[in-house]
Amino acid sequence: MFRSGSLQPFARHLRSSSLLSALQEQPTPSPSLLLPPGPECSRLLPVVREAREAEGRLLQLDFSSLSSYLWLLRAATLALAERRECSKENGSSVRNLLYLAAAVSDFYIPNGDLPVHKIQSSEGAPSIQLQCVPKMLVPLAQQWKGESALVSFKLETDSKILVAKARKALDKYGHKLVIGNLLDTRKREVLLVFKDEMEEVRLSDAELETGVEIEEKIISRLIEIVRQL
After folding, report:
1. Which has more pLDDT, 92 or 130?
2. CA 65 → CA 4, 43, 60, 71, 101, distances in Å?
3. Other C-beta atoms within 10 Å of 151: how many?
């Protein structure tokens, strides 16, 4: 699930400015575009191959508002929970992992409070009253997810409160794992925070230089954890 206009798997590697500069027009025999050998082609080739391998295995659902996200998340979790129950009845072993990486804002403006027409500057600066976003982790963890494993994220800018905030979320919502990260270092290191222990996932300098992304290591470790549940 992704918000319309946000970065998406594979497509996020397509930097439009550099790609447009590298593309060449081929007018004959029919108009077409060519990406000749070079740095841009070398960078994109493995991305294209991975995207082709993922065809038929990756379902992408977009949302455009807070309400559409919450309703779509509910529908998706209920469908996955039903799939899990059906697999048990058929004697197979299917495990679901809900990986909540979308950073939903803590505050929003309800649709009923949004202006209908363009705000006129002649009327002065508008007064905006924000409302707290409903905490969907409560029904998700306690009612919707069934036996699905649930992983949420906690992003902070202050390292002194990160672990405490992550464990507070574990106590409040009753799930097993929060991935804690800091805004400045989130692409290099994260903390897997459990109720009574922590585990660090970090990229080495060599991994950073070769283009390894921390999501690869996070997902690999989460799969190991879920299989042990």
Report:
1. 130
2. 9, 33, 16, 10, 16
3. 19
- Nearest CA to 67 among 95, 104, 97? 104
CB distance 65 to 104 below 8 Å: no
* 3-state secondary structure at position 99: strand
Query: Among residues 177, 169, 222, which one has the least CA distance to residue 197?
Result: 177
Strand partners, 189: 202
CA 200-204-207 angle, to 5 degrees, is 125
pLDDT-derived band at 83 (thresholds 50, 70, 90) equals confident
What is the CATH number that goes with domain 33-113+127-228?
A: 3.40.50.10300
pLDDT of residue 126: 85
pLDDT tens, position by position, 201-211: 999 999 999 88
Structure tokens at 161: 């409160």
Q: How far apart are CA 138 and CA 221, in angstroms?
A: 25
pLDDT digits over 127-136, tens only?
A: 888 998 888 8
Longest dimension (CA), the chain: 68
In whole angstroms, what is the distance from residue 227 CA to residue 229 CA?
6
Statement: residue 214 has pLDDT above 90: yes
Domain boundaries along the sequence of the chain? 33-113+127-228
Return the sign of the alpha-carbon dihedral for residues 212, 213, 218, 220: negative
**Tokens describing residue 25:** 């027009």
Q: Is residue 29 reached through a cis peptide bond, with omega within 30 degrees of 0 on the bond before it? A: yes
Please report which confidence band the pLDDT of residue 185 belongs to, taking 50, 70 and 90 as the band edges.
Answer: very high
